[in-house]
Amino acid sequence: MYSRVSGWVGTEQGCPILKFADDTIFFSSTREEDLLTLKSVLLVFGHISGLKVNLDKSNIYGINLGQDHLHRLAELLDCKASGWPILYLGLPLGGNPKSGSFWDPVIERISSRLDGWQKTYLSFGGRITLIQSCLTHMPCYFLSLFKIPASVAVRIERLQRDFLWSGAGEGKRDHLVSWDVVCKSKMKGGLGLGRISLRNSALLGKWLWRYPREGSALWHQVILSIYGSHSNGWDANTVVRWSHRCPWKAIAQFFQDFSKFTRFMVGDGERIRFWEDLWWGDQPLGVRFPRLLRVVMDKNIPISSILGSTRPFSWNFNFRHNLSDSEIEDLESLMQSLDHIHLSPSVPNKRSWSLSSSGLFTVKSFFLALSQISGLPSVFPTKLVWNSQVLFKIKSFVWLVAHKKVNTNDMLQLRRPYKALSPDICMLCMKQGETVDHLFLHCPLTMGLWYSLFQLTKIDWVPPRSIFDMLSTNFNGFGSSKRGIVLWQAACIALLWVVWRERNARIF
Ligand SMILES: [Zn+2]
């Protein structure tokens, strides 16, 4: 919350105050009479309201102020002189987010939470749930304001990774699926944990969205005074010439990624640039008609200056010289494509977020879009694994099967030969070696189960080459109704689960 004490004695602009819950910050000049006035106002306030201000427990911090000077002012106010950073609303103000120690509180919180979980035995599915619901979100408060250094992101992801594959305190276990795959979205075969750096970008994008919408807020004013306005008239400039320590410097780096997903909704067209902004079609007109953009006088000219406010449009293009034949062709097609536009002078121009149906920014949509950009598309039986109506721990087991990463004997042979069964043989048929494809598909015993399942459906089934193909194929075994699909998914998963339980029962 931000307010001003009006009629403040001694200063021209008044005394800005930041208040939240039981914390209050006063900003003041260093003039002694200002501080004395502040002190007497606080004392008078205490006498009137009975809410005594405890100066002993208050601190004074200097900005560009010598230590001696700061101590003298502290004596004047009967409070303590302190140094940066300070903790405000749980965030360190004036610290350096680029240094590793700045993030220590976050890492400590995560590790202490993990220690608390050590004693309880958790299934693989349980650990996934805890990571999704808790570990991923714990750093979010810091991540929503500061850019995380790559080294710190690696430290946090290592904590998550070790916990996922071993459970805390169970000793070293195998990391069955690579962390890159785990972080992918569920559509692409991952667990949807997401990279911390991408989550960070998406959270910081929120400030870029809020900036033009909160023009009267104190934080907006501060950023504006440091950076100045972007040539589009909506955002803050992304570069600032002098060096300083301000979270915005890192936030501004995401502007390119962010602005790709914004577009303008034209009202009167006064604050939207005709050539440079995205407001019509799939790309800015300057990108669609580069030859025309090259010859315009003013690239930042607003829509309203070119079209005028009413139909017919005035087409006030202002080119630098007469157009060539090919440029005239471009101009004709441009004018044709704009024929359906209606300007509505009474409606304000708006910026909308193209990734959500409401047109409003969401961190989640930005995060998903950023995750899509990185990494190649791949197919994965997402529906069977995650949409089925079975227990989560069984879903996560099927996820491992689909990745061929359950600990069958062939995997154990590779990883820890001394622990694997010898001879390396399938416990169900006692004939062939145990692989994921054999155990869950080609083993005569399992195959018998699959055949009896397909007999119920009257489908002529030919066993596919791999369990992945099997899970990826849409058989419609019990019809294509919702009930039929749910039933079929459950039946297939039950078959896999039964085989796995039986196999384990025979071994252990
Ligand atoms: Zn077998």
From TrEMBL:
Residues 1-93 form the Reverse transcriptase domain. Pfam families: zf-RVT (PF13966). It comes from the Eukaryota. This is Putative ribonuclease H protein. The gene is VvCHDh000004_277.
